[in-house]
């Protein structure tokens, strides 16, 4: 029997390798878990992944065909990141587009986004259910329509009171298949890519005396240029910056207006500020080369605890 990959990464191993002590997929990665308040060492293959996250159920295709295709693309993107690490400059537009594509995938394809989609679906069904449970005539109309359409058998029975109890007690679950989730995610991919491609990008390199950059399970981070501004922050909003750690010593910064220098040398405080953004945007885990994650708090550098 043919074996298929089951441990699918939403944050690629090759990318995480850049934040290990050895700079390899088998290197030691320090993981700061923000929920359990613990720090542990592991390998990139053990984090940023979920079982069957990219599994598809399409006749004539292996269930891990998308996982393999994504792996091939991510391999190309990671090789370009390695080139930036070695050369210290941004690549040409064609090569840089691979990194933008990788960032767009990280934005649209992750467990937090899937949970948000599932919660939205659940809320929609609950609203519809509440409407049906308030009006017996509306309930009977939809039952008759469903029988006419063949959605339910002609002899199906169900009382209005039973429906009200069913809705009131939440006796149902909403399931969104992995294939449907992937379809919705990929539908938003082009939009995310266009927004990223519309920004001016700078390569930020940490000074010799500066701490390491860190990454997380949601590494493409949008923030407002105005520190005290409140409200939603999105990838397409003006007066925002997007940061993306490339490896332990380099990161990207993207803006819509007032382009920054193409190459920026970051002092300790600047690195810690970007790390603070990354930590705040994490769903649960922060990944780093050492156990000490330097962040900026109240204008001072501190170690994440």
Short overview:
The protein has 305 residues and is of the alpha+beta class. Helix content is 41%, strand content 19%.
Task: Characterise the protein shown here.
There is one protein chain. The protein is of the alpha+beta class. It has a domain at 7-108 and 199-303. The protein has helices at 13-17, 65-87, 93-108, 111-134, 136-149, 160-168, 178-197, 268-281, and strands at residues 7-9, 29-33, 38-42, 49-51, 200-206, 215-216, 221-224, 240-247, 250-255, 263-266, 285-288, 294-297, 300-303. The strands form four sheets. The protein has a five-stranded mixed β-sheet. Helix 2 packs across helix 3 (93-108), helix 3 crosses helix 7 (178-197) and helix 4 (111-134) runs antiparallel to helix 6 (160-168). It starts with 6 loop residues before the first strand and ends with a strand. The relative contact order is 0.15.
End-to-end C-alpha gap: 47 Å
- Could you estimate the helical fraction of the residues in percent? 40-55%
Q: Can you summarize the main beta sheet? A: 5 strands, mixed
Counting helices, strands and paired strands, the structural category is alpha+beta
Spatial ordering of strands, largest sheet? 7-8-9-5-10
Topology, number of strands: 13
Mean of pLDDT: 88
Order of helices and strands: EHEEEHHHHHHEEEEEEHEEE
- Proportion in β-strands: 15-25%
Sum up the overall morphology in one term: elongated
Low-confidence stretches: none
> How many distinct helices?
8
Q: What is the rounded Rg?
A: 23 Å
């Amino acid at each position: 029997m043919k074996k298929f990959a089951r441990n699918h990464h939403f944050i690629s191993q090759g990318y995480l390798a850049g934040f290990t002590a050895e700079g390899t997929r088998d290197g030691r990665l320090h993981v700061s878990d923000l929920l359990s308040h613990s720090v542990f060492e592991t390998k990139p293959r053990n984090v940023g992944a979920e079982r069957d996250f990219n599994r598809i159920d399409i006749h004539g295709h292996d269930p891990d065909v998308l996982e393999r295709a994504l792996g091939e693309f991510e391999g190309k993107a990671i090789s370009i990141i390695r080139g930036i690490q070695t050369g210290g400059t941004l690549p040409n537009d064609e090569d840089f587009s691979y990194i933008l594509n990788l960032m767009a995938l990280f934005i649209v394809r992750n467990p937090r986004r899937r949970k948000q989609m599932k919660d939205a679906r659940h809320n929609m069904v609950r609203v519809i259910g509440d409407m049906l449970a308030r009006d017996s005539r509306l309930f009977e109309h939809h039952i008759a329509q469903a029988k006419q359409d063949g959605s339910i058998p002609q002899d199906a029975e169900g009382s209005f009171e039973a429906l009200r109890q069913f809705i009131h007690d939440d006796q149902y679950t909403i399931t969104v298949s992995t294939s449907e989730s992937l379809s919705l995610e990929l539908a938003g991919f082009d939009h995310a890519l266009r927004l990223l491609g519309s920004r001016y990008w700078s390569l930020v390199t940490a000074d010799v005396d500066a701490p390491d950059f860190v990454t997380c399970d949601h590494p493409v981070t949008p923030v407002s240029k105005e520190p005290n501004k409140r409200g939603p922050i999105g990838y397409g909003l003006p007066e925002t910056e997007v940061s993306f750690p490339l490896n332990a010593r380099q990161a990207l910064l993207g803006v819509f207006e007032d382009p920054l220098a193409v190459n920026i040398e970051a002092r300790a405080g600047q690195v810690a500020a970007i790390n603070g953004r990354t930590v705040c945007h994490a769903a649960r885990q922060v990944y780093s080369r050492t156990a000490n994650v330097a962040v900026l708090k109240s204008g001072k550098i501190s170690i994440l605890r």
